[in-house]
Design a protein that fits this description.
nine-stranded mixed β-sheet; 34% helix; Rossmann fold; alpha/beta; six-stranded parallel β-sheet; 369 residues; 11 helices; single chain; 25% strand; Dihydrodipicolinate Reductase, domain 2
């Protein structure tokens, strides 16, 4: 294994910058970057202080100096870029969702195994300090046998019909918009904390705006038909007879990033809210409820107390690159891999089919073996 790891970033938007900062926090060299045009590559390289700007993905993937490729592009590019990178012998860290279809995500999972390469999906919420504490509490049996897992993921950045983003284009973002963009995080997180896979789902979708308005380069509003979901409600059957329900929307005024879940067990309950990420709520029948606070944040100023996404990115990449540099793949990774990405796609596929057919749909988890 090399002592020095060099990374190439694909994507020059917000996520490209976030990945770059977290990699540098871990003393990992970001050696090059690729944008949607060479001009954007040059601009991002200059702004982020990256030595090399690439003309094309082919130039990046065939650069022998690059060991790992981080994909922060729109969803439709994840599969072709990840596949090319794996075939070229590069380790891959990919934003979620892993692909556009389960056929694609399965191919990537199997290819990563075949090539014996490190693969990771950017489910960064797992790395929150208090999520790690929740994991310990639940896995140690402190809440007893889980009965119910419920919650929501609410944002408001698509509240107005004039709000526009590439995720609204199903050719680029995929048919599942709200479920794929933010629901995927919730579904991954509760499976991670509980240790329970989702077996079947019953979903109901609603599109409140069947038309939205995109501002063109000439300053005019272009009317665009919308056929992806603004809202989803999902009934869930987990392993071990555990029941669940999830509500998701990006049209909820006042909620910037409210990922919330609660697990009710035979002894007690536990809950976490991403908008108060340095706290865990513990609920009891016969004693006072408790709020566990992140002691590491105790002495920080009020403006710095709230755990930011950069903390979770930093920890995720610490784990990925510690594993990569150790070079011993006999140990199970302690970060989300392409197996987790494929699991998420299998759950999303069942949700989409259920909403369309108005029936319960089983998740094909046998494909993970």
């Amino acid at each position: 294994m090399k002592e020095k790891i060099r990374v190439g970033i694909v994507g020059t938007g917000l996520m490209g910058s976030a990945h770059t900062k977290a990699l540098r926090w871990n003393d990992i060299e970001v050696a090059g970057i690729l944008g949607s045009s060479y001009e954007k590559s040059i601009q991002a390289a200059g702004e982020l202080g990256i030595a090399k700007a690439y003309h094309s993905f082919e130039k990046l993937v065939n650069d022998d100096q690059i060991d790992v490729i981080h994909l922060t592009t729109p969803n439709h590019l994840h599969f072709p870029h990840a596949k090319s990178a794996l075939l070229a012998g590069k380790h891959v860290v990919c934003e979620k969702p892993l692909a556009m279809t389960t056929e694609e995500s399965k191919e990537l999972m199997l290819l990563g195994r075949e090539k014996n390469l490190v693969t990771a999906v950017n489910f960064n919420f797992r790395m929150s300090d208090m999520i790690q504490k929740a994991l310990e509490i639940v896995r140690n049996g402190e809440i007893g046998k889980p009965f119910i897992i419920h919650g929501s993921y609410l944002q408001d950045w698509l509240l107005y019909p004039t709000d526009w983003n590439w995720r609204l284009d199903t050719n680029v973002g995929g048919q599942l918009r709200t479920v794929g963009d933010i629901g995927s995080h919730w579904l991954d997180l509760v499976s991670y904390v509980s240790g329970l896979r989702i077996l079947e789902v019953f979903a109901d979708f609603k599109t409140f705006y069947d038309k939205r308005y995109k501002l063109t380069e000439t300053g005019k509003q272009q009317e665009i038909n919308i056929d992806s979901e603004d809202y989803a409600s999902i009934l869930i059957h987990f392993e071990n007879g555990v029941q669940g329900v999830l509500s998701i929307s990006q049209l909820c005024a006042g909620h910037k990033n409210r990922l919330f879940f609660e697990i009710n067990g035979s002894k007690s309950s536990i809950a976490w809210n991403a908008e108060q990420s340095d706290q865990l709520w513990l609920g009891y029948r016969d004693q006072e409820n408790q709020i566990l606070k992140n002691e590491q944040k105790k002495y920080l100023s009020s403006e710095n107390k709230k755990q930011t996404s950069s903390d979770t990115f930093n920890e995720l990449y610490r784990r990925i690159y510690s594993y990569l540099l150790a070079g011993d793949k006999r140990h199970k990774p302690d970060f989300p891999t392409f197996e987790d990405g494929h699991y998420g796609m299998l759950v999303s596929e069942a949700i989409e089919q259920s909403a369309s057919e108005k029936v319960w749909k089983k998740v094909r988890i046998e494909e993970l073996n």
